[in-house]
Design brief:
The protein is α+β, with helices and mostly antiparallel strands. The chain is built from ten helices and twelve strands.
Length: about 300
């Protein structure tokens, strides 16, 4: 054993932001298996090789050991619910998902997908490392889901500055109101998503629950409300909320179920925790000024 605390070591590793993947395969008995993993990485372009690793204690180890092929799904921003589902134990992870009856189970809607033939395996510490040769792949324009310090996050592309620019203008640009608001928004939303993810809620679920609590019941209206927040209330997201017992959908109408009301209450508590954290270092006067400024800014944006 190394001479340092494993918990501290894990925390240090957590500062390396990764994507989130779901690895699927069929074991020797034909059973579909899948696990959430952030150990995915590229190895080589020629030949096209990638790798990932699996904990020796995983209940899916025997299936992956016997499988000749596997698929790596790089999750998109709206697929936190799938990450949580495939990270769980015991439940039928593929319930309601179209994966086919033969071959490697392939999930729909990922940011990228790599169908691989297993070419090497290595015993490495407490994990088994698998190297696969990519035999087919697919990529979309969807933004990827990130994982950092035990929480979900999202990437924000940094714009490349022009070679010729005025330094003073650059400083003013960085301190511009819109840039500051955008940066604050990204950081705050990442905290919300982490809290909601811990509750098993997808990114669109909070918007749906809020709309239902405000009396909106038409499916098309709720879909528009979700899209207005730049999320998607896809058929898969709808089915996930139905399976969780949060909502019922019939005849173009959405009903909030008792479990959904409980989730809504927990969501409000999570939002309160985030808000308390944000304003914890501010005085009452600063909080009042911030509320006034943001409200006035919102009104000006509508003019």
């Amino acid at each position: 054993m190394a001479g340092f605390d494993q918990r501290d070591f894990r925390s240090a590793l957590g500062r390396f932001a990764t994507g989130v993947t779901i690895i699927t395969a069929r074991g020797g008995d034909g059973r579909a298996v899948g696990v959430t993993a952030n150990s995915f990485n590229s190895v080589s372009l020629d030949p096209p090789l990638v790798l990932w690793s699996l904990d020796r204690k995983s209940g899916s180890l025997d299936a992956f050991e016997s499988a000749d092929e596997f698929a790596i799904h790089v999750l998109g921003l709206d697929q936190e619910h799938l990450s949580n589902r495939f990270a769980s134990r015991g439940a039928d992870k593929f319930e309601g998902l179209a994966i086919g009856d033969t071959g490697v189970p392939l999930l729909e809607g990922s940011a990228a997908r790599f169908h691989c033939r297993k070419v090497q395996r290595h015993d490495v510490g407490d994990h088994i490392l698998y190297i696969g040769e990519v035999i087919a792949f697919h990529a979309s324009d969807d933004a990827p889901l990130l994982y950092l310090q035990g929480r979900y996050g999202e990437a924000r592309r940094r714009e490349v500055a022009e070679l010729s620019y005025d330094l003073e203008a650059a400083r003013l640009g960085k301190g511009a109101i819109l840039n500051l608001l955008s940066d604050a928004y990204v950081r705050i939303i990442a905290r919300f998503h982490a809290e909601f993810g811990a509750l098993g809620l997808s990114q669109s679920a909070p918007v749906v629950l809020i709309a239902l609590s405000e009396g909106v019941i038409a499916l098309d209206e709720i879909t528009r409300a979700v899209e207005a927040r730049a999320y998607r209330f896809s058929a898969e997201e709808q089915q996930a909320m139905v399976r969780q017992g949060l909502i019922a959908i019939a005849d173009g109408r959405v009903t909030l179920l008792p479990e959904g009301k409980t989730a809504y209450a927990r969501m409000l508590a999570a939002m309160k925790r985030v808000e308390d954290h944000l304003i914890g270092g501010l005085t009452a006067g600063e909080v009042a000024e911030a509320r006034h400024f943001l409200a006035k800014l919102g009104n000006l944006a509508e003019d």
